[in-house]
Here is the input.
Amino acid sequence: MNFKTGDKVVVIAGKDKGKEGKITKVLRDENKIVIEGVNVVKKHVKPNGQNAGSIVELEAPINASNAMMIDPKTKKRTRIGHKIDKNGKKVRVAKKSNEVID
Here is the structure.
């Protein structure tokens, strides 16, 4: 998986298609990501000793294949490639603009 926490992505499939946001959590084992403001669901919380029960809205994970990176230069969606830089370090590269993604 080529995504990291903090990456700006756009959803390309599903009920939230076209929405943009930052990745807040990456679940590598399940190949899923959590994006802020995307796939918001309501969860019923049972009451416990400290607080009363309530209905909480939170972001549920979506499959990583349903999101694409936003190119930092063109601000359009792009695929991600990998290159070895001058120092011999492997870096992520936006395919559309050849811009290095930190």
The CA atoms of residues 1 and 29 lie 10 Å apart. The mean pLDDT is 95.
